[in-house]
Amino acid sequence: MLSSFRADGNLVYIKKPNFDELDYVAELWADEETMNDVGGVVSFPVEKREAWYRKMVNPSDGKNFYCLIYTFDDVPVGEVSFHRFDMEERKADFNIKIQAKYRGKGYAKEAMQLILSYYFCDFGGQVIYDNVINEKGKKALQNFGFEIVSKFDNEVLFKMTKERFIELLNKK
């Protein structure tokens, strides 16, 4: 597992955060405008950060991979990650959040491309899923090329396969 990771796009780069960058994660999760459509704000007290960091950012089990999204001015604008990687089925759950004040600039699409490229081409993933309840998230995943697996009430389960991702890359 990489202890440091960075992937650059044209608008943003993603990287595994250092422990001292978790203040931004707390800010992101506490931002009501950002979090109101994904279930509400999440408290991230200092005393919980070390255990979270070991599990999500620098894990020993190889099941989680977490990055912050930065502009090239080194301003953090969101997070992107995958979780609960199943080594047998080569599948995981996807997560992306762009802080509300930075939305609409193309950052999400590029961050998705960067982490999915790593996930499918370097990490060994075959399929990734995302359960989405908010309309902006649904639209972003559909526009990127995720496929709908199922719908229940306002919740939509999306998936992206390695084959589909490579197909989308080849169309660009």
Outline of the structure:
Keywords: Transferase. About 35% of the residues lie in helices and about 30% in strands.
Q: How would you spell out the order of helices and strands?
A: EEHHHEEEHEHEEH
- In CATH, what is the homologous superfamily of the domain at 6-125? Gcn5-related N-acetyltransferase (GNAT)
Strand content: 25-35%
Question: What would you say the CATH architecture of the domain at 6-125 is?
Answer: 3-Layer(aba) Sandwich
Provide the CATH top-level class of the domain at 6-125. Alpha Beta
Largest sheet: 8 strands, mixed
Stretches with pLDDT under 50, minimum 5 residues: none
The CATH topology of the domain at 6-125 is Aminopeptidase
What value does the Rg take, in angstroms?
Answer: 15 Å
- Terminal Cα span: 30 Å
Protein name: RimJ/RimL family protein N-acetyltransferase
Keywords: Transferase
Pfam families: Acetyltransf_3
InterPro entries: Acyl_CoA_acyltransferase (IPR016181), GNAT_dom (IPR000182)
Textual characterization of the structure:
Residues 12-167 form the N-acetyltransferase domain. The protein has 172 residues and is an alpha+beta fold. The chain has a domain at 6-125: Aminopeptidase. The chain has helices at 22-30, 32-35, 46-56, 107-123, 135-144, 162-171; strands at residues 6-8, 12-15, 65-71, 76-86, 91-98, 127-132, 147-152, 155-161. Strands 1-2-3-4-5-6-8-7 form an 8-stranded mixed β-sheet, sandwiched between helices. The longest helix has 17 residues, at 107-123. The protein is globular. The protein starts with 5 loop residues before the first strand and ends with a helix.
